[in-house]
Amino acid sequence: MAKWIFVAALILMIVLLAIFWWPPVKLPFDVKPDADRSFSKTASEKDTAFGELLSKDDGGFARALKPRRFSFPQDHGPHNQYRAEWWYFTGNLRNAQGRRFGYELTFFRFALNPDAPESKSAWRTNQMYMAHLTLTDVENKRFYTDERFSRAGNGLAGASGLRYQVWLYDWSASAQGSADFPLRLSAKSGEFAVDLVLETQKGPVFQGEDGLSRKSDEPGNASYYYSYTRLMTEGNVRIGGMAFPVTGHSWMDREWSTSSLSEEQVGWDWFALQLSDNSELMFYQLRRKDGRIDSNSSGSIVQADNAKVPLKARDAKVRVVDSWTSPHSSIRYPSSWRLSVPDQKLELDIVPLINDQELNVSYRYWEGAVSVKGTKNGRPISGQGYVELTGYQ
Amino acid sequence: MRSVLSRASRNFLWRHPWQLALALLGIALGVAVVIAIELAMESALTAFDQTRKAFSGTATHRILAGNGGLDEKLYTRLRVEQGIQQLSPIVSGYVGLPNDDRFRLVGVDPFVEKSFRSAWQEENSDTDYFARLITEPGTALISEQTAARLNLKVDDEIMVTTGNGEQRLKIIALLSPSHAISEQALSGLIVTDIATAQETLGLFGRLSSIDALIDDEASETLAQIRRVLPSDALLLSAGEQSEAMREMTRAFSINLKALGLLSLMVGLFLIYNTMTFLVVQRRQLIGSLRAMGVTRRQVFQLIIGEAFWLAVAGTTIGVVLGMALAQGLLHLISGTIDAFYFRIDAAALRVTPVQLGKGILLGLGATLLAVLPPALEATRLPPMTVLVRSRLESGVRRLVRITGLAGGLLIPAGLALALLSGKSVMPGLLGIFLLLFGFALLTPVFTLLAMTLIERVFGRFLGILGRLPARMVSAEISRTGIAIAALMMAVAATIGMDLMIGSFRQTVQEWLQGTLRADLYVSLPGEKKSIAGAAGDRQLKARLAAHAGVQMLSSVLTTHIIADEALTKVSVFDLNARARRGFTFKQAAPGGVWDRFEREQTVIVTEPYAYHHDVKVGQTIMMRTEQGKQPFEVLAVYADYSDQGHLAMSRRNYQRYWPDLGYSGIGIYAKPGVDLKQLEDQLGQSLKAPRSIRSSQAIYQASMDLFEQTFTVTETLRWLSAIIAFVGVFSALMALQFERTRQLGVLRAIGITPIQLTALITGETGLMGLAAGLFAVPVGYIVAYVLIFVIYLRSFGWTMAFHVNVAIICQGLALAFGAALFAGVLPALKMARTRPVEALRNE
Amino acid sequence: MSKEAAIAIHQLGKSYEESGRRHRIFSGLNLHVNRGEFLVLLGRSGSGKSTLLNLISGIDLPDSGSVIVNGTEITALSEHNRTLFRRHNLGFIFQSYNLIPTLSVGENLLLPLELVKPLTRADRDAVAALLDKLGLADRYDTYPDRLSGGEQQRVAIARALIHEPDLILADEPTGNLDLETGRLVLEMLDTLVKKAGKTLIMATHSREVIGQADRIVSIRDRSLVSADAFGS
After folding, report:
1. How far is it, in rounded angstroms, from Cα B235 to Cα B221?
2. Which of A172, A365, A138, A169 is nearest to A248 (CA)?
3. For burial by CB atoms within 10 Å, which of B132, B362, B707, C151 has the most?
4. Do residues B67 and B646 touch, judged by C-beta distance below 8 A?
5. What is the pLDDT of residues A119-147, one digit of tens each?
6. pLDDT at B26
7. Is residue B423 situated within a structural domain?
8. Could you say which of C54, C107, C112 has the minimum Cβ distance to residue B751?
9. What residues in chain B have per-residue pLDDT under 50?
10. Shortest CB distance from A3 goes to which of B193, B238, B399?
11. Residue whose C-alpha is closest to residue B34's, from B255, B258, B273, B246
């Protein structure tokens, strides 16, 4: 009965086993989760819930009360004492084979409060930037979006009044040379990118009353608003690994204000159309809670010679021809319009290049490339442009 | 049939509740210790990981630099010029609260991508406070739990102490962590905007680190980052960081686990012992059952089945006990890791299935293995045989010789393994186990020898009755041997560890006394990170130097520099001649150290650093500086027991490449004849908290207190294994006495009084204790030797002198003797109280 | 000290508790044993023979009544004194020998002597002489487990006698032995005990013993009856 030896061997074995088996084992549940990437048919890269930051009113900000003298390049730069400001670029592009693309690159600036804080820290600021980038791939009926946020501190985002430059991280719109134009737009997201050079064809158009654009009857509910309505555009767009050399026309809107919409107003339908006769039409229609159109709706026609024809609310009629319900948000948007300006004998049918151009970002809206067909003075006319729909629920 | 059969054995257990309880206790304690160490260690390390995750979220990489931090423009460069997304800049540092709590202040940029999913981003619904956090200076977030603990509400203000002085922070919102892990991680955090963190900590222009979330496949992004990374910064993956941290504490955790295994090993003896008794006592029952036609297999199943349920019950108790124990250990373990490795913010016990599983498997497996030999023995019993014990014993003696031989072989094998296994800790520990095990196997031989000797020497004075205890020990060596071996192992481990700790203590004492050369020390606590804070430190130093009672000063700055591609602790010294005498060089470059230390691009390294990094005198260490990598020659290796290794360089060398971050400590050398107490008071008045002045004596005392505190874990675990050994001896003796009830009854019948019987039994157990104790002394010595010169050297890189302490040996002897004696008292009293007629009836 | 009565048992009562029920063994038992008398105790298994021996030896205590041995009322003694009394005055022989396994044959015999007074050379001689008488002279240093059952019982008898007690109690001393060996043991008891004038009480079934006994009593209905009456 070799019991002692047996026990000895057994215990030794256990000890050995225990020692060698001891070092920590890696198990599957240590594996780290992947970052959130929810792509649907319409690719949407969004960063949620910064929206609430942007929608608060506050006293202490400057207000757009009366027309001002614009001077450039300072007014291409930021107006930090106003609550909100944007640099808005949209455009219709095609490659050599005629494949159509639409893009939007917008920089928003928001002042979180009126006073710039004093600090030795470069990060301390009251200015915050947001940027939206979209690309419409008409052929594949795909719509790509991405958004960015950053504070203006530490050089992470900002705009310059010395030469045309606005940026948020590596997304930027900046003057190529010493002049404001040509302007280079550069922005890339994971799936897509734009890199375009914009050359001006027509000088700035000061919307509203010499650039003061009233949004409601209340004084101060207005913005300073100027546009470059036709910008020759050339460059590349990239989708996935494919780069497409493109040319086309862009539209730039610059607007800053502290408050624009009144209580009764819920949103707007905004049209920026470039017509084949080298004229452009901008018209925004402010919608009221009661469903009527606000009398402060307005717009302008910029003729081929850069002469501006202002449009009042009553000057233009917009009729919704069709509608589309977003599969993402279940929101019903108008999706075809007939816009008529009787005084100009202008009748235009506006149709989105694709329906799904809804930006499911922290502040949801529809902004898409459209094509235009119609008549002017009885003669056929065509065109392209962008439509923005906000405040739909 | 089956159910009656199992009842026959179960009833036996119920009728001997003591043995049942002791068997359960043995299993439970063994399992508990193992589980407790596993859980506590894992929880401490996880706490560190969790805290990192709380503000780094799912970050995969981190860019960091030495204590000076990163230039904040690096972040802009990466974001704006390189267009790298998913980066999170962090400014962090420790701040003190008025109640002496230390919190980690973490400054983040709330606008970074949500994909980081860090704990502060989890707060989902309400982002109103974001604007305030960014625009309003001094605004902070804490978790709801922290607020409740500190009795704070929204809009309350807290005063925090930083290296930058006292600052006021306003709580503007509470974070409600969505799960326990982030709750735990957030409990030690104050979250602010990055600007607020810079302002509060005085870290203008600097970032502590940049976290990055980079896909595994995006190696070009990593390359892109590396291209623009300044030469004083380091890009590490989260895995590397975690690994480095675990690697750092590996030796420590192995040592703890070894203690746990020791407990389990002693526990195994106990389980084996108990189960053997349970079988032996039922020989007659088993014989009868076999006579009735119960098969060997059924008998085997009976025993194993019973052991299984014992194991299940014991392990269950052990798991519960282990979790409770872990709670206590966690505090001690975190304390030690805090003191020696890195700061752990909020460690709460995390019970993970893996750790529990290990313990459970060990408990069940060990019990079943331990019961295998007795179960096999039981099946070999011939039907209806009443075996006479002494007949069995004479067969055992041959076996004792064989095990003794095996033990004699294991001992040199263990010693060889321990001494010849290079630098790794594991074989060293394995060697100790082999040694202990070998000596345990030798124990029966030793016991027989000792008993014969005792009888020879004292027998003639003692008479027949006096000889009986020694005879009883020898006669039942198969039973007493196990108990003695278990006790011997526990006591030897105790003696070994006591000797080691004693040697260590003395070494540290001598080192401290040598090192603390100044009369007074001013400590300037807090992380030294901000250049802004350095000016204040310099002013203070100038003020101290100007005092009439001060002869000279020395100073140290403790900071971190990237040396040889790892963030390394560096002591920056400004020394005078007296301070230099406090260094004990283990190795030094020929031709003097100090002149070159000051003038040339050199460092000296601590002994643990040299050991862990395999650095020898004359080698160079590459350090990252803003001017690229710079070589520093190693001039000497010096004794240091304060941590797991660091470098030391002269202040002159340091300031050539790195920003002045002030001082961590200033040594004051008083002019001769100056009253030190008075000087301390005078200088102390001008110091604002958290700065303080202490005499070298007070520092010495505090250091020794820390030393003792560090060994509390070891101490605790050692006592646990001693307790297990005691339980083992106790249960062995209980069973032994129970087994020979009848024999004791006969003694009573022929006229032995209860007192004589008590003396007889305690005499026997006392002898067992004495044998265990005597044998444990040399074994303990060998264990201490291996611990000092193999295990501790390999684990921590410390060399120490072997100090023999007679008191420890006496203590060990007393422990063994006392424990055994005490364990004998209860059975002795029980037997003495039993009326002989009952004893005689027992068969 | 009464010359006639070595043992006087008066109105002895004893019961056991077994699984909650009281089990009476004796009630009102009386017995007188004269000095030098050889008394045989008969009775069925479980009738209480061993219990009676235990009560006489003071190993066990009665519920009522008294036991007087050699004039000492042992039922009134303390446990300690009872043990000392046993040590000096009693020899016990068990059915299963019950030698101390850890002591050699010689030491087993020396132990009772040592309990009485410190051992002397004479004691060792006495032990050697006794073993010689029993034909176990060469077994002095042997341990009990090396002996046969008969040899062990002979050693046990020697142990019961070595310190020369007045009273020997034997509980079925031949119960574990074959007929031949049993006879040998009985012969020994006869020579060593009866001839030496010691009082012997033996519980047994053995018919052989009955013939040698001075008196035979039997336990019946919790009391003693004379075997003569029982026999006739």
Report:
1. 12
2. A138
3. B362
4. no
5. 999 999 999 999 999 999 999 999 999 99
6. 77
7. no
8. C112
9. 1-2, 124-125, 384-391, 843
10. B399
11. B258
Is residue A32 in some structural domain?
no
Q: Are residues B221 and B286 in the same domain?
A: no
Closest C-alpha to B91, from B626, B524, B530: B530
Q: Which two tokens stand for residue B422?
A: 């290079």
Residue C112, SS3 per DSSP: helix
Q: Which two tokens stand for residue B336?
A: 């030690």
Domain membership flag for residue A4: no
Is residue A139 situated within a structural domain? yes
State how many domains chain B has: 4
Q: Using CA coordinates, name the residue in chain B closest to A158.
A: B80
Task: Look at chain A and report how many structural domains it folds into.
Answer: 1
Assigned CATH topology for domain C35-62+78-231: Rossmann fold (3.40.50)
Number of Cβ atoms within 10 Å of the Cβ of A342: 11
CB–CB contact B199 A120 (8 Å):
yes
Which whole-number Å values give the CA distances from A177 to A10, A160, A230, B569, in the listed order? 84, 14, 20, 50
| Chain B interface includes A50 (CB < 8 A) | yes
CA torsion B518-B521-B527-B528 (nearest 10°) is -60
Residue A11 lies in a domain: no
Question: Can you give the residue range of the structural domain that contains A81?
Answer: 40-60+72-389
Query: What long-range pairs does C222-225 form, CB within 8 A, spacing at least 24?
Result: C222/C24, C222/C25, C222/C26, C222/C27, C222/C28, C222/C29, C222/C48, C223/C26, C223/C27, C223/C28, C223/C29, C224/C29, C224/C30, C224/C31
Shortest Cα distance, chain C CAs vs residue B454, angstroms: 15
- B323 and B258 in a common domain: yes
> Token digits for B468?
């009986």
Q: Domain check: are B119 and B195 in the same one?
A: yes
pLDDT of amino acid B373 = 78
Q: Which of C57, C100, C110 sits opposite B743 (nearest CB)?
A: C100
Pick A310 or B372 by higher pLDDT.
A310
**Interchain contact, B268 vs A14, CB within 8 Å:** yes
Q: Mind telling me how many Å the CA of B746 is from chain C's nearest CA?
A: 6
Q: CB contact, 8 Å: A9 with chain B?
A: no
Q: B752 vs chain C: nearest CA distance in angstroms?
A: 7
User: Which of chain C's residues have a Cβ under 8 Å away from the Cβ of B837?
Assistant: 54, 59-60
Contact C218, C225 (CB under 8 A): yes
Is the residue at B438 inside a domain? no
Pick from B127, B204, B478: CB nearest A52 = B127
Chain B: residue nearest A21 by CA?
B358
Compute the distance between CA of residue B306 and CA of residue A239 in angstroms, rounded to an integer: 70
Closest alpha carbon within chain A to B214: A35
Contacts of A129 in chain B (CB under 8 A): none
pLDDT, tens digit (0-9, with 9 covering 90-100), for B422-460: 888 888 888 888 888 899 889 999 999 999 898 888 877
CATH number at residue A375: 2.40.370.10
The residue type at B631: P
HEC secondary structure over B287-347: HHHHHCCCCHHHHHHHHHHHHHHHHHHHHHHHHHHHHHHHHHHHHHHHHHHHHHCCCCCCC
Residue B270 lies in a domain: yes
Token pair, residue C223, equals 């009391």
